[in-house]
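[#protein-structures] MJ: dropping Non-homologous end joining protein Ku here for a structure pass
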Amino acid sequence: MRSIWNGAISFGLVSIPIKLVNATESHSVSFRQIHLDDGGRIRYRKVCELEEREVTQGEIGKAYEDADGTMIPITDDDLAALPIPTARTIEIVGFTPAERVDPLQMDAAYYLAANGVPAAKPYTLLREALKRSGKVAICKFALRGRERLGMLRVVDDILAMHALLWPDEIRTPEGVAPDTSVTVRDKELDLADALMDTLGEVDIESLHDDYREAVEELIAAKASGEEPPSVPAAEPGGKVLDLMVALEKSVREAKESRGEAVAEVTTIPARPTPKQPSGKKSTSTARKTAAPSTASAKKSTAESTAKKTTAKKTTTAKKTAETKTAETKTAAEKTTAKDNPAKKASTRKRSA
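AK: finished. structure tokens for Non-homologous end joining protein Ku:
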């Protein structure tokens, strides 16, 4: 890999010669500007506004524009003569736990390669010291015309450096948070947690740039004279009216995409209360409903009364029969009693 900067790491009195290499590369598809009428390239030419002629790169320098428009020329020699130690040195100023560095400050990333055999020993020493401490080194360095803040850390078996923004370059998030006061219910949080658990951890290595791939397919199709691949239109996203419904649907779709079984939960809506247009209709209905019940009640009462009457008649008849029988027996006994004394008297007379 080609180095973009050569210098040294200043670690106390230890100097470690290094080469700075870009740790990232862009895979973006770049376009050129063309003239729509004939497809000709649009080019920019560097023209001196005083002489009104095109100038070469060797004729171009840099200058600082003052507030009144005056140009103050600055040469590379002027910058190289600045009395700062970071002009060709990555100066370590301290160490801190990695979690204390705000990710908002992180900028471009670089690999630091040991420059030469003598640099191997101090390079390895700094790497192992950072590993054992579990900390990162905060440093300052000058690159591309400005002094920058940096963070050194260990990646595998090499030293990597992240350029950091200065603290005063981080804007305060004023007016970004919602202005209205919102209360989040526990059920909504539970569903959000369930969605996070369902989505699970992400394998960053498996992610790729879908947009770039689609653009490359489009270019390949047009270059070969074929029809560009058709893309199904995305469903229009409606306004989320119910957060709970949206969360439940998200959890269900996430589980389905992972091949997990989803229990279908059907919510039965409450039965609406029937409307009563007028009191007459309700009264009529009530009367119609009550009519069969009244008829049944009357029928039951009649049957009950008939049974009771029959029972009474039967009982009366029994009592009457018993009374007559008793009276007959009594009369017979009395008659017998009258006859017996007469017989006894007749017997006595005969004996005398």
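MJ: nice. The helical segments are 76-80, 120-133, 186-199, 210-223, 243-257, 279-351.
AK: one more thing. The two ends are 174 Å apart (CA to CA).
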